Structure formats: C-alpha cells, structure tokens
Amino acid sequence: MTTPYDAVFAKSIEDPNAFWAEAAEDCHWYKKWDKVLDDTNKPFYRWFVGGEINTCYNALDLHVDQGRGDQYALIYDSPVTNTVKKYTYRELRDEVAKFAGVLASLDVHKGDRVLIYMPMIAEAAIAMLACARIGAVHSVVFGGFAPNELATRINDAKPKVIVSASCGIEVSRVIPYKPLLDEAINMANSDSKPQNCVILQRPMETADMAAGRDLDWNEAVAAATPHDCVPVAATDPLYILYTSGTTGEPKGVVRDNGGHVVALKWSMKNIYNIDAGDVYWAASDVGWVVGHSYIIYAPLFKGCTTILFEGKPVGTPDAGVFWRVISDYKVKTMFTAPTAFRAIKREDPTAELTKKYDLSNFKTLFLAGERLDPDTLHWAEKHLGIPVIDHWWQTETGWAICANPMGIHHFSVKEGSPTKPAPGWDVQVVDAENQQVKEGEIGALVVKLPLPPGSLPTLWKKDERFISSYLEEFPGYYKTADAGFIDTDGYVFVMSRTDDIINVAGHRLSTGAMEEVLADHPDVAECAVLGVDDALKGQVPVGFLVLNAGVERDHEEIIKEVIQSVRGRIGPVASFKKATVVKRLPKTRSGKILRGTIQKIADNKDYKVPATIDDPAILGEMEDALVGIGYAKARK
Predict the structure, then answer these.
(1) DSSP assignment of 551-599, as one string?
(2) Closest CA to 304 of 83, 77, 60, 94
(3) Fewest Cβ atoms closer than 10 Å to its Cβ: which of 165, 233, 391, 462?
(4) CATH value of 4-311+391-484 in 3.40.50.970, 1.10.12.10, 3.20.20.210, 3.40.50.12780
(5) If 0-12 CB within 10 Å is exposed, 13-18 middle and 19+ buried, where does residue 507 land?
(6) How large is the angle between the packed helices 178-187 and 147-157, nearest 10 degrees?
(7) pLDDT, position 572
(8) CB 494 within 8 A of CB 403
C-alpha cells in the first residue's frame, strides 16, 4: 500500500533540486540561488550556491515583519533559580540586535568566530542569534567543560570574542565558569587567544574580570547600538560544533547558513507536525546539536514558541518537572533523550506525578540521542497516551536521518526502529566490501551521497579529515558509524555503533539486541551490554543493570532472570553469562552511555576520562563492579 510518504520520499531522492527548491521558497532570501545543488567539486557538495540569506532574519525579523511580533518566541524556565522569563518575537529581536551591536563594537565581522561558553540561559540563545545576525560563526562549548578541552577548541576556532557567564547551576551546586575559562585562555596558543570576553554576571557567583579584556554583559548591552542583519552566502558557515568525546585534535562540524535554514524549517512541519504558533520543547542543552537545531533554530524559523529549560528531568525538584513545564506552557510536542525518561521512570515507576498536571495539549513525544529501548517506549506510551516517536540522527547530520514523519504520514511504530528514512536521506546497508547486504541482514548503515541540506558540508579547516572520517571507508556513501538493518517494510533498525557489534566465537551479535532483553525486565530501569575480551571466544557480553527505585529483591535472582531471558530470546550463541547491578552508568552530559570507556576498564586498557562525562566518580564504581565479577583488575 502506498502512502503520502512514498511520493514525498521518491521526489526527494529522484529530483532533489526540485524538492529542495520548493522547500526553500518558504524561507527569506536577499538573493535567490543560482544553483540548488552544486556537485562540481565532489565530494564537497554545496546547496543553494549563489544565494544570500540571513539565519537570524529568518528566525526573528521575518516573523515581526509578518505580524507575529507579539507572539512569544522564547520562554526561559529555570527551576534551579526559580526564574521564568518570556520574550516575544519583537523583544527577542531587539535583544539580539543589541548584542549584535556589542559584538560589532568589538570588531567582530562576517566570518569571525565567537566562542560561547554558557549555561542554559536565555543569553546563550541571544548570543548565538546575534552571531548569526552579523554573519559571525559561533561555536558553542558546553558550559563547565574542562579547561584543557576548552583550550583545544579555542586553538581550533581562534575566536575573536568569547561570551560566557560567571557560573552554571547544577541540582545541588554552583559551578564557577570564569576560573575554567581563564585557565583555558592561558593554556591556548598565543595566536588563538580572544581579544575580548563578554561575561554575564549571575547573582549566585561573581566573576573576577580581567582589565582591558573582559566586559560586563549588561554594561556592554546598555551602551550598544542595535545592529541590522547582514546578508551572507548560503554556503557561508553559520556555526562550528565540536563532536562530543573529542580527544586530542578536535573535530569541528560545520553548518552552513542556507541549507540549514531550508532543511530545519521544512523538518518542523514534516517530521514533527508543528505549525507556526505551536509550543515546542526540546529538553536538551545548547551545547549539543539538539540544542542548536531544535531549541534555537528550527522552532524560530517556523514561528513557534520554543522553551529553554535550565534544569534536570529529576531533582529540580522531582520527577514531575517535565509534566509541569508541559502543563504550564501548553507544550504540543516535546523532544528529549530516552535517558531522561529512564530517569523519570526509575523515580516514578507508575507515573503518579503525571496526574498532577494538565497534559491535554501534549500531542507527541519524540526521543533521540541513543537507542530507544522497548521498555521505555511502552512505559511512555502507556502513561502519556500519545504517540512516542523514536528518531535517529547525529551531530554531523543536523536533523533526522530516520523518523516517523508525523506531518506527512504517521506510520505504525515498530519497537527498536526509528521508522523510515526521512526525505532526502538515501539510507542503505552495506558490508565491509561496500556491497549491499540482503534484506534483514545487519551491516553498516550508510547514506548515499549527496547528503541533503542541513548536514555537514565539511569539518572546520579539515577537508581531508572530513573525507577520511566519513567518506573513505565506503566510497560514494556517508559512514554513520552505526550498524543495523532494513526490514521488508522498509523500516530501519539502528542496532548499535559499529564498534558495539561484538564477535562471539565467530558470531556477529548486537549488544543493542541484548540490551532490549535486559530492559524488558520489570525491575530494570536502564542497562548496558558490552563485549569484553575473552581468550576462548574472542569476546563475550557482560551486562550492567540499574534497578528501579524501591526494588528490594535479591540482586542475584534478578541477574539469573535476565541471563535466562537472553538465553531464551537470543540463544546460547550469545554466551551471555555475566551481569552485575550498579547504582548508575557512566554517561555524557547528553545522556549517552560511555560504553567504550567501560569496555576499556573491563579489558584493563588505559583510558582517558572523556571530556563530556557527567560525573567522573562513576568510573571508579564501574571498576569496582567489574572487579567484583572477575574482569577488570583492581587499579591503584
């Protein structure tokens, strides 16, 4: 049976020029493009060559000019400071224009870089949009990043100005940012240090200011002259975003202006079924790609009200805070990571806190960032009574590779699958020799070139590394570094990172499939499975279980049950014989489990504490757990 999706997808693949030209008509251009897709310099494809555009104008000024100036554009909600601030489109445009004037007064011009090291506050969004307004290239670094990691990004981007705040606020502590920033600048190369820093002083922590270099945000804005939008080439860079977990030489994903506006605005209706005036909430951080794409840019391109939330899914103050925000602002669609829902489920297994709030305006929940396990999917479906949609994408792609396209056609959900390729994404499965595998067979998930608008055109100042990282292994394709398969209905299943396919006595097995079995156990809140070195079988899987709050059963009994379940559903070939209960799993701040680091601990290999880790102390707990089941050796 054909669906509306089939025709849309076919056109996007067979005639991408016509497809994306039509989408681009919905955006504001100072000058129309000469060519929709320029493929004369493969593999460096460029979209909307010759066109001139301004990202900030499309996000703010356009809506004011079209009569939406009094609609709320941005709602800043901070349970950690007990603050709510709302900005209309006109107010946000005016704030952004003033801060653009601050940057211009500091000699920031089109093409110059500005590094933004901010907590989840409205000023972070204002700084990003102000850069876009004058054609400067912003690079947001997650607030609180360690000085050495921040220094590597300063060296790579060479920002003329750094914008920061005196502190960030976690659930139970204040994190001073300025000492970290000062140390990073001291560590940076002499030719990379910023000329100026603009610091927002928050009342919880006052930063020391460097005379001659540092400016107070409020004082600078008060003295600023508002700045108009500056037209830039569609192919000019909008931002650089360094991939999480980068060690040594950073990998800066570049996003262009033109293709980004077109693809993200198109995605709001077609993927998320969101219209102008709707309230949209991506519960992420501006330091991640989700924060760029779906807190700041896409909702504002579409004329929505977007929510910027400074808090956590639990602990600010409880596991009902998401429902409170949805209720307070009549959120229609929410987008967050599965790990957030696992945290909520662990604290409130029966979702009693949903009963305190009016969720009648809440229509769809989107999840991404890691595999959505069936247990979390079904828990959310049961307690929310709305579609729960898994979708799959990456920092590099900028928007969904695969999704259930709610604005085109709502497909039935298959657990474990982000449904079908989004229009523009020609997803295929290949083997190590770059040959397509049979339907249903696991292989490397790749995307046939050219990638659609909104995806990365290259890496910052590193074209050769762009080729070697993403295009070399599978010529003609973009390597996602994820493994999976496509079933007979065309649904894509993303099983794990390619390095999470383990080889047990010659059998290639997905740790993701085993995690699904573990997550199905009623006492398990979340889990991880990884392969550890084994002299006989090459690798064997080991499971780590985090239990639901209040579970008092004997841990050994639970472990026996999950081992039996894996044996029953995947078979003895999996050789799944060991698991352990842990209090928590090591994760990045965006919620991704650090499986590679756990694996190195288990295999007694040296490892570097990842820059993006949420709490380094967890690694000691993992060492103890692995020693307890006979793998890692105790370290001094």
Answers:
(1) --S-HHHHHHHHHHHHHHHT-GGG---EEEE-S---BBTTS-B-HHHHH
(2) 60
(3) 462
(4) 3.40.50.12780
(5) middle
(6) 50
(7) 74
(8) no
CB 185 within 8 A of CB 147: no
- Helix residue ranges, H only, 271-389: 289-290, 298-302, 321-329, 338-347, 374-384
CA distance 372 to 553: 26
Of the candidates 484, 476, 477, 564, the one whose C-alpha atom is nearest the C-alpha of residue 518 is 564
Cis peptide before 418 (omega within 30 of 0): no
pLDDT at res. 247: 41
Cβ atoms of residues 309 and 122 within 8 Å: no
DSSP string covering 600-632, please? HHHTT---PPPTTBS-THHHHHHHHHHHHTT-S
Per-residue confidence (pLDDT) for residue 450, from 0 to 100 = 98
Query: What six digits make up the tokens of 201?
Result: 């002083």
Phi, psi torsion values for 539, nearest 5 degrees: -145, 150
Question: And the tokens for 593?
Answer: 């489990």
CATH of 507-628, one of 3.30.565.10, 3.30.300.30, 3.90.79.10, 3.40.50.300: 3.30.300.30
Going by the DSSP 8-state scheme, the letter that residue 101 receives in this structure is H
Contact, 353 vs 384, CB < 8 A?
no
